[in-house]
Design goal:
The complex is a heterodimer. By secondary structure, chain A is an all-alpha fold. Chain A is built from eight helices and one strand; from the N terminus they run H-H-H-E-H-H-H-H-H. In chain A, helix 2 runs antiparallel to helix 7. Chain A starts with 6 loop residues before the first helix and ends with a helix. The two termini of chain B are 20 Å apart. Chain B is 57% helix and 19% strand. Chain B is elongated, with a radius of gyration of 16 Å. In chain B, strands 1-3-2 form a three-stranded antiparallel beta sheet. By secondary structure, chain B is of the alpha+beta class. In chain B, strand 2 and strand 3 form a beta hairpin. The chains are: A mainly alpha, B alpha+beta. The interface between A and B is medium-sized, with 31 and 31 residues. Strand 1 of chain A pairs antiparallel with strand 1 of chain B.
Chain lengths: 213, 108
């Protein structure tokens, strides 16, 4: 009993148990997969539609994940309602992400308007920084340290892609290679975590009649 | 050696709530303290206790008035939600304070 009871650690464990099922990694991977595929469609559909065409794909991915969580994960992990501290933290996260997205949108708009004048490396650095900051904020507020690593990889992707493109190793600013690889990593990590979760947590049936009945 | 219940030097030990002091129940209460409520499966996963074990400890905590157990049906399946009562929350805080005092007063 000499060990200190860490309530913060207990809360963090409860939160992670509830959400760290690998499915969010897969969803994130699906989002970045679009960035890898979209450049190939931009010649036929244009810049706007080549991105917009993925909205139904994201919606489908989100719906699938929601259904898997409801029918596969929740029966294995159970349900929890979080306390005030976590709700406040999530509200702060939403507010910060909203501001960060508005800033990113404005910066993106400025970059798009000055696309010809701003060097590719500068755009890549700004783009990479935005992605790194966004994912780091998410990692901090959601207590998901894995997101820091994703943030770092995603942040470096535009730079690496630009380098590959300028040296003639890749097309479309290297997006298909860098973001395709990243999406693959995220989806594989997510799948590995999800499969482990299924393996380690079978649907409990033992004892159900005695307590649950 | 004097018994802790009679020895004034060790009196804080007697103040420790024995219902909470059992490791499994302490674990359950710690998790319930940091969330609003959790269901049976979630508590089982978090604590690593078996159905039977968890059931026994929950019954003791419920009898002490520290937790409330709400049963309902989700579709055709029974579902049990467990939450800390006001009394349970106060008892946990008191327990934490008592334990800290005992540990702080121990000589190195």
């Amino acid at each position: 009993m000499a060990q200190q009871i860490s309530l913060k650690a207990a809360e963090r464990k409860a939160f992670r148990t509830s959400y760290d099922d690998g499915l969010w990694d897969i969803l994130l991977g699906c989002i970045f997969l679009m960035w890898a595929i979209a450049p190939y469609l931009s010649t036929s559909l244009g810049d706007f539609w080549s991105s917009a065409v993925f909205l139904p794909f994201w919606a489908l991915a989100y719906l699938t994940i929601w259904l898997i969580r409801k029918y596969v994960v929740t029966p294995r992990i159970g349900r929890v309602k979080f306390g005030r501290a976590r709700i406040i933290k999530l509200a702060k996260f939403t507010a910060v992400m909203l501001v960060a997205n508005i800033v990113a949108f404005i910066l993106g708009l400025i970059a798009a308007m000055n696309f010809e004048r701003v060097p590719g490396q500068t755009t890549s650095i700004i783009f990479g920084m935005i992605l790194l900051i966004g994912l780091s904020i998410a990692a901090y507020f959601l207590d998901f340290s894995r997101l820091y690593i994703y943030g770092l990889l995603v942040g470096l992707s535009p730079l690496v892609g630009e380098w590959l493109w300028t040296h003639g190793y890749a097309t479309h600013h290297g997006f298909p290679i860098t973001f395709g690889t990243l999406a693959g990593i995220m989806i594989l990590v997510g799948l590995a975590i999800f499969v482990r979760l299924l393996h380690d947590n079978p649907v409990p049936t033992e004892g159900l009649p005695s307590r649950e009945a | 050696m004097a018994h802790p219940y009679t020895d004034p030097e060790l009196h804080p030990l007697a103040d420790i709530d024995q219902v909470i002091h059992a490791p499994a129940r302490l674990m359950v209460l710690t998790y319930l303290y940091v969330v609003e409520s959790a269901d049976y499966v979630f508590l089982m996963r978090l604590t690593g206790l078996t159905w039977g074990n968890l059931s026994t400890h929950l019954t003791k905590l419920e009898e002490a008035g520290y937790i409330s157990i709400h049963k309902e049906f989700k579709g055709k399946k029974p579902h049990t939600t467990i939450g800390l009562t006001k009394q349970g929350r106060t008892a946990f805080r008191e327990y934490k304070k008592s334990l800290q005092q005992v540990l702080n007063d121990l000589p190195d």
